[in-house]
Amino acid sequence: MDPISPKSSPLVRLAHRLGLDSAVFFAVLARSWQLATGPVTQVLIVVHFLKSTLDYYYAFNSLLGTQIFIELGLSIIVIAISSHEWAKLTLVDGKPVGDADSLSRLASLHRRMTRWYSIAAMIFLASMSAGGLIYFGTAQETAARAAESWQAPWMVMVLVNATQLVLLPMTAMLEGCHQVATLNRVRFWQGVAGTLAVWIAISSGAGLWALVVSSSIRLCGELYLVLFRFRPFFQSLNAVHSGPEIHWKEEVLPLQWRIAVQGILLWFASGLPALLVFSKLPEGETGRLGMTWTILSAAQAAALAWVETRRPQFGALIAERRFDKLDQMFFRQARMSCLMMALAGCFLIALVWIFSHRDEWLCQRFSERLLPLTGTCLMAIGFIANQPGLCANIYVRAHKRDPFLLASSISNISVATLQLVLGLKFGVTGVAAGYCLGISLVQTPLLLAVWWRTRREWH
Question: 54 pLDDT band (50/70/90 cuts)?
Fold first, then answer.
């Protein structure tokens, strides 16, 4: 963060002390908007959605998460590589200028990733269309689920997500090229427009089409960034056809397969449990698990913004070998991130306790749609314990290396196994217990051990 003047207002100085530059501000503002409007959305869902609709609502998101099997985590590599190249480049009149070799390498990265993601999007469209029809058509059915019209919303959702997949490498490159503030500003307004549109859709009885509306709003924001706001940026990259190129086998593949394996195993730990609950447990349980998970995930994303938005700066400092400055920035932001997640988790636990002891209609409705107090506590503890490991992961991967393969594989397999085993035995509370145990006892200790070792060796 740039230094501030001694004459700056107390508010500006407080924002600086908290690490709130424009990039972080809009990221936190977007997550705060989600947290603030989330209860309103949940009230509308409780009023207008049947339990079967809510089950499909969260199962759709879990199945769409299998995108990682096709995308293979390349967007993270795009951010890392482009941030290193951007250390010698800058933006002038919307176009990248600076070192010719770095510009050429950035252009080659853009060409390769655009081709890759175009093919990936077509594979995703075909596989998810058929896969969703098969899974939802054969999953455990109740009378209400059998009457639910889910086929058309699912097909349109897959189409919208496939289009977003085509744009993903471009927005990732913009993030790596230090355009985070602009991206977060657009994403904030995406969130505002999306929330309002979803409220209208749910209130008008659109049901599962509300998910389509939300995804379509996000797609419009991505199209604006690529086709309008940063059009000169990508036109300049497309005009570069000579010079050094990114070497896939040496620079991309060694990191790609590690991130891909970890991403796939992460889906088993975070996405598969909801699909298990949908197919094996009574109607309504998927909704309880999904709603609690969604609230905590939104809180985690808001808290992680303190570190996540520093990813390009981490890459630039590493390229310049300014490790003292890197550590100073990381530790300050990581402390804030962990503190915010802890506060959010405690706040949710308190709300669930209050809801369970009140007789008002709204409190009872929320109590029925969230995990019980024990399950909420376990899930919240798991999310809080996960925060240090997530911060460490961002720090290490900013070096364009990924030594987490073994630790991440062991931890995600452990988390997934514990959730599935305990979930089948104890229901959704068992899923929460499995997540808490796996994260607290396996994942976070392993990730922090890798971070500690690599930081000492590389620096």
Answer: confident
Q: How far is CA 217 from CA 88, 264, 329, 368, in A?
A: 35, 27, 34, 30
Nearest-CA neighbor of 337 among 394, 420, 273, 375? Answer: 394
Predicted local distance difference test score (pLDDT) of residue 166: 94
Is the residue at 352 inside a domain? yes
Say what the alpha-carbon torsion angle 118, 119, 122, 128 is, to the nearest 10 degrees. Answer: -110
pLDDT confidence tier of residue 122, bands split at 50, 70 and 90: very high
Q: What is the SS3 assignment for 320-346?
A: CCCHHHHHHHHHHHHHHHHHHHHHHHH
Query: Coil, helix or strand for 91?
Result: strand
User: Does residue 1 surpass a pLDDT of 50?
Assistant: no
In a domain, 345, yes or no: yes
Q: What totals of helices (H) and strands (E) does the chain contain, helices first?
A: 21, 2
The predicted structure's pLDDT at residue 147: 54
User: CA dist 395 to 297, 309, 315, 317, Å?
Assistant: 20, 11, 9, 11
Q: What gap in Å lies between CA 96 and CA 91, rounded to an integer?
A: 5
For 254-263, how does the pLDDT look when each residue is reduced to its tens digit (9 = 90+)?
A: 777 777 887 8
Residue of 158, 134, 137, 138 whose CA lies nearest to 65: 158
Find out whether 421 and 366 touch, Cβ atoms under 8 Å.
Answer: no
> In this predicted model, what pLDDT tens digit does every residue of 202-242 receive, in sequence order?
999 888 999 999 999 999 999 999 999 999 999 999 888 77
Q: In terms of residue numbers, what domain contains 120?
A: 17-458
32, pLDDT greater than 80 = no
Question: Are the CB atoms for 285 and 277 separated by under 8 Å?
Answer: yes
Q: Give the other-Cβ count within 10 Å of 127's Cβ.
A: 15
Contact 13, 4 (CB under 8 A): yes
Torsion angle of the four alpha carbons 90, 227, 175, 126, in this order, in degrees rounded to the nearest 10: -140
pLDDT higher at 9 or 344: 344
Whether 343 has a pLDDT exceeding 70, the answer reads yes
CA angle 400, 401, 404 (to 5 degrees): 140
The answer to whether position 440 is within a domain reads: yes
Give the separation between CA 106 and CA 86, rounded to whole angstroms.
8
Q: Are the CB atoms for 30 and 191 separated by under 8 Å?
A: yes
Higher pLDDT, 388 or 90: 388
* Number of domains observed in the structure of the chain: 1
